[in-house]
User: Which sequence fits this backbone?
């Protein structure tokens, strides 16, 4: 397993779980200084910066790109794949396909979190899950063209009512025969939704493709009450070899958070 840390350039998400929010050049330098293997990027849109500029920063600092988030499509542009309005769903899909293309050129998968939306009002749960499966089919095919996966993230109940648990996500992938789709195990969401985080990872088996390594309170690991040993053992048991990514609140500040998180990752993997 490898380490990653979040860099955000989305002012609307300033209160979100993103560690470094300064200019990207500084964020890359900080990630390297703390010893991370990779950065996870949260950008306002796919045309915010060129792929070439990111490639230059990555090679200057000898960092990989672990993943690119799509959440700005929701927090900045109000787009969701399960919006009752077909034109909004289409815009959401196009935003995601462009982000897949952006990340793909960097060898990085894109993540679907808040842009999955919610069911309710005129939209039934069955309808929303069908729209979502249809979008995931297209996203998976687009990702495969870059030899990467597309990452689907079950979120806690306060952020979506579609799929809240990891094994439920695994069953959904299998039911709809979704290809090139992997699951994101965000340990913060799982602390709320799972009865046993380690068992949930075992139950989801091979489907986990990315990990947001957050403590129970979404601070850096070690600042809450998550017991990490069984979780790391479960990830090893299912053959997970991807990133433990610091999608956590920059508490007490970004520097201290980054230092605590890399210490926790090193201890966990030692
Ligand atoms: C995104 O990775 C996530 O975990 C969401 O909670 C962000 O709103
Ligand atoms: Mn997450």
Assistant:
């Amino acid at each position: 397993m490898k380490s990653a840390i979040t860099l955000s350039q989305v002012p609307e998400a300033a209160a979100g779980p993103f560690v470094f929010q300064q200019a990207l050049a500084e964020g890359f330098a900080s990630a390297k200084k703390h010893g991370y293997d990779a950065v996870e990027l949260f950008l306002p849109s796919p045309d915010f910066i060129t792929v070439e500029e990111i490639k230059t920063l990555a090679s200057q600092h000898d960092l990989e790109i672990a993943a690119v988030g799509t959440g700005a499509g929701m927090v900045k542009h109000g787009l969701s794949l399960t919006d009752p309005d077909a034109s909004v769903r289409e815009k959401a899909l196009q935003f995601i396909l462009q982000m897949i293309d952006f990340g793909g050129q960097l060898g990085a998968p894109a993540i679907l979190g808040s842009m999955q939306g919610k069911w309710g009002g005129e939209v039934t749960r069955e309808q929303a899950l069908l729209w979502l499966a249809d979008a995931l089919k297209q996203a998976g095919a687009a990702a495969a063209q870059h030899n990467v996966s597309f990452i689907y993230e079950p979120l806690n109940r306060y952020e979506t009512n579609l799929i809240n648990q990891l094994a439920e996500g695994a069953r959904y992938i299998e039911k709809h025969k979704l290809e090139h789709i992997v699951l994101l195990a965000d340990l913060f969401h799982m602390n709320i939704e799972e009865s046993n985080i380690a068992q949930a990872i075992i139950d989801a088996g091979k489907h986990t493709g990315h990990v947001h390594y957050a403590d129970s309170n979404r601070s850096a690991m070690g600042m809450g009450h998550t017991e990490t040993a069984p979780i790391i053992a479960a990830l090893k048991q299912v053959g997970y070899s991807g990133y433990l990514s610091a999608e956590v609140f920059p508490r007490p500040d970004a520097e201290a958070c980054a230092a605590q998180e890399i210490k926790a990752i090193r201890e966990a993997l030692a």
Q: What stands out?
A: The chain has a mean pLDDT of 98. Residues 182 and 209 are 5 Å apart (CA to CA). Residues 113, 153, 186, 212, 247 surround manganese (II) ion (ligand 2) (CB under 6 Å). The first strand starts at residue 2 and ends at 8.
